[in-house]
């Protein structure tokens, strides 16, 4: 029995039947190949949607209530529009649903009650964007059930980010929602987060696979230093704007790079240096991908990870252990942390015929150093959020 068939069966057991049509949806997870912590600094990023994600079975109901159940997280909720005013700690995961519904209505689109069963196979707290996946899932559900799919995908992407920023309180960039919204099978997407222009790039690694390495060291953005890093970047930008005409850190030209020495605090200098250099690595990575130069792509991943550890300081002992052993393991051409950091996941480019050996080697060494069992996922590059027919 497929995931959707199993969910459909459980949906019919959970919710009283009515005459409304039942719809099935899938919202992917994502990995960012390179371009970390620069989506809120106007930089370019190179993510792709992947084949793990969040499934939803949904149907309109007649009582204007939002009845939502997750097979991953308890409790279930039965909410009304009155619950959508502001974030409430006691509403835990339902806040992500409420934030999206609130801003869809605020933008002038139709909303209404629905019954919803959710299941996700994204490891929670892994840095693979389970929250953005849920936000875009809810957006697509309301788009289908109440708006005849007339809400443009870019609008849903912006609403998802708005829910994360304003309702949840995480000052994140737009990359996660963007790639989950516009992802395309077997393609990475070069996204200019300043202009929101994007370009599809074929991402078929002949003889190699992307392996996701979950440290199983859970992290919560709300409790991490994510907002602190963004504030440091904002402070650096504010100082630099006194000397050069830029709107974001990624506009800083190489000829003006010496100006970071005017940033008195070492920590802020380091953050700015990472942002500027990481943005350049993204362009080099796109070129390597276009020419199928996997070795160069792997080297860029290692450079990115070094910068995230030494300059941006968002890795920590668990991510450091995982990338250290991955980069020295059989068949790996490059590995780095992905996502916000502070725990979560790494990605590695590994020779396809050496994946089993790679996993065995890294798993044993990581367990010996940290006491934790790593999780290894081989996911395909997938399409963005969609209804399943």
UniProtKB/TrEMBL annotation:
<feature type="domain" description="Galactokinase N-terminal">
    <location>
        <begin position="9"/>
        <end position="60"/>
    </location>
</feature>
<keyword id="KW-0067">ATP-binding</keyword>
<dbReference type="InterPro" id="IPR014721">
    <property type="entry name" value="Ribsml_uS5_D2-typ_fold_subgr"/>
</dbReference>
<keyword id="KW-0119">Carbohydrate metabolism</keyword>
<dbReference type="GO" id="GO:0000287">
    <property type="term" value="F:magnesium ion binding"/>
</dbReference>
<dbReference type="InterPro" id="IPR013750">
    <property type="entry name" value="GHMP_kinase_C_dom"/>
</dbReference>
<dbReference type="GO" id="GO:0004335">
    <property type="term" value="F:galactokinase activity"/>
</dbReference>
<dbReference type="InterPro" id="IPR020568">
    <property type="entry name" value="Ribosomal_Su5_D2-typ_SF"/>
</dbReference>
<dbReference type="GO" id="GO:0006012">
    <property type="term" value="P:galactose metabolic process"/>
</dbReference>
<dbReference type="InterPro" id="IPR036554">
    <property type="entry name" value="GHMP_kinase_C_sf"/>
</dbReference>
<keyword id="KW-0418">Kinase</keyword>
<dbReference type="Pfam" id="PF00288">
    <property type="entry name" value="GHMP_kinases_N"/>
</dbReference>
<feature type="binding site">
    <location>
        <position position="226"/>
    </location>
    <ligand>
        <name>substrate</name>
    </ligand>
</feature>
<feature type="domain" description="GHMP kinase N-terminal">
    <location>
        <begin position="95"/>
        <end position="183"/>
    </location>
</feature>
<feature type="binding site">
    <location>
        <begin position="125"/>
        <end position="131"/>
    </location>
    <ligand>
        <name>ATP</name>
    </ligand>
</feature>
<feature type="active site" description="Proton acceptor">
    <location>
        <position position="176"/>
    </location>
</feature>
<dbReference type="Pfam" id="PF08544">
    <property type="entry name" value="GHMP_kinases_C"/>
</dbReference>
<keyword id="KW-0547">Nucleotide-binding</keyword>
<comment type="similarity">
    <text>Belongs to the GHMP kinase family. GalK subfamily.</text>
</comment>
<dbReference type="InterPro" id="IPR006203">
    <property type="entry name" value="GHMP_knse_ATP-bd_CS"/>
</dbReference>
<keyword id="KW-0479">Metal-binding</keyword>
<keyword id="KW-0963">Cytoplasm</keyword>
<dbReference type="InterPro" id="IPR022963">
    <property type="entry name" value="Galactokinase_bac"/>
</dbReference>
<feature type="binding site">
    <location>
        <position position="164"/>
    </location>
    <ligand>
        <name>Mg(2+)</name>
    </ligand>
</feature>
<feature type="binding site">
    <location>
        <begin position="36"/>
        <end position="39"/>
    </location>
    <ligand>
        <name>substrate</name>
    </ligand>
</feature>
<keyword id="KW-0808">Transferase</keyword>
<dbReference type="GO" id="GO:0005829">
    <property type="term" value="C:cytosol"/>
</dbReference>
<dbReference type="InterPro" id="IPR000705">
    <property type="entry name" value="Galactokinase"/>
</dbReference>
<dbReference type="InterPro" id="IPR019539">
    <property type="entry name" value="GalKase_N"/>
</dbReference>
<dbReference type="InterPro" id="IPR006204">
    <property type="entry name" value="GHMP_kinase_N_dom"/>
</dbReference>
<dbReference type="InterPro" id="IPR006206">
    <property type="entry name" value="Mevalonate/galactokinase"/>
</dbReference>
<dbReference type="Pfam" id="PF10509">
    <property type="entry name" value="GalKase_gal_bdg"/>
</dbReference>
<feature type="binding site">
    <location>
        <position position="70"/>
    </location>
    <ligand>
        <name>ATP</name>
    </ligand>
</feature>
<feature type="site" description="Transition state stabilizer">
    <location>
        <position position="30"/>
    </location>
</feature>
<comment type="function">
    <text>Catalyzes the transfer of the gamma-phosphate of ATP to D-galactose to form alpha-D-galactose-1-phosphate (Gal-1-P).</text>
</comment>
<comment type="pathway">
    <text>Carbohydrate metabolism; galactose metabolism.</text>
</comment>
<protein>
    <recommendedName>
        <fullName>Galactokinase</fullName>
        <ecNumber>2.7.1.6</ecNumber>
    </recommendedName>
</protein>
<keyword id="KW-0460">Magnesium</keyword>
<feature type="binding site">
    <location>
        <position position="131"/>
    </location>
    <ligand>
        <name>Mg(2+)</name>
    </ligand>
</feature>
<keyword id="KW-0299">Galactose metabolism</keyword>
<dbReference type="GO" id="GO:0005524">
    <property type="term" value="F:ATP binding"/>
</dbReference>
<feature type="domain" description="GHMP kinase C-terminal">
    <location>
        <begin position="287"/>
        <end position="367"/>
    </location>
</feature>
């Amino acid at each position: 029995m497929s995931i959707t068939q199993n969910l459909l069966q459980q949906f019919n057991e959970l919710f009283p039947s009515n005459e409304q049509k039942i719809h099935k949806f899938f919202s992917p997870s994502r990995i960012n190949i390179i371009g970390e912590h620069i989506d809120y600094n106007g930089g370019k990023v190179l993510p792709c949607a992947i084949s793990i994600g969040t499934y939803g079975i949904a149907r309109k109901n007649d009582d204007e209530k939002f009845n939502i159940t997750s097979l991953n997280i308890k409790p279930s909720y039965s909410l009304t529009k009155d619950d959508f005013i502001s974030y409430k700690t006691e509403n835990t995961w339902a806040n992500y649903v409420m934030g999206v519904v609130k801003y869809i209505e605020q933008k002038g689109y139709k909303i209404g009650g629905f019954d919803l069963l959710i299941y996700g196979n994204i490891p929670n707290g892994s840095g693979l964007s389970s929250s953005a996946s849920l936000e875009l899932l809810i957006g697509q559900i309301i788009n289908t059930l109440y708006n005849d799919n007339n809400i443009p995908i870019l609008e849903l992407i912006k609403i998802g980010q708005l829910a994360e920023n304003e309702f949840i309180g995480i000052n994140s960039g737009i990359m996660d929602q963007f790639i989950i919204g516009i992802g395309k099978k077997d393609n990475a997407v070069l996204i200019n987060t300043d202009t929101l222009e994007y370009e599809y790039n074929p991402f078929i690694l002949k003889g190699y696979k992307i392996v996701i390495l979950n440290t199983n060291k859970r992290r919560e953005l709300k409790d991490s230093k994510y907002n602190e890093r963004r504030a440091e970047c904002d402070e650096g930008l504010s100082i630099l704007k006194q000397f050069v005409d830029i709107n974001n850190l990624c506009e800083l030209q190489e000829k003006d790079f010496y100006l970071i020495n005017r940033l008195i605090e070492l920590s802020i200098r380091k953050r700015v240096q990472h942002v500027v250099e990481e943005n350049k690595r993204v362009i080099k990575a796109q070129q390597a991908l276009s020419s199928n130069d996997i070795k160069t792509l792997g080297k860029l991943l290692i450079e990115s990870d070094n910068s995230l550890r030494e300059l941006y300081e968002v890795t920590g002992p668990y991510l450091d252990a995982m990338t250290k052993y991955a980069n020295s393991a059989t068949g790996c051409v490059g590995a780095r942390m992905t996502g916000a950091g502070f725990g979560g996941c790494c990605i590695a480019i590994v020779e396809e015929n050496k994946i089993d050996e790679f996993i065995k080697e890294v798993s044993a060494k990581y367990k010996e150093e940290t006491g934790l069992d790593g999780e290894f996922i081989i996911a395909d590059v997938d399409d963005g959020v969609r209804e399943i027919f």
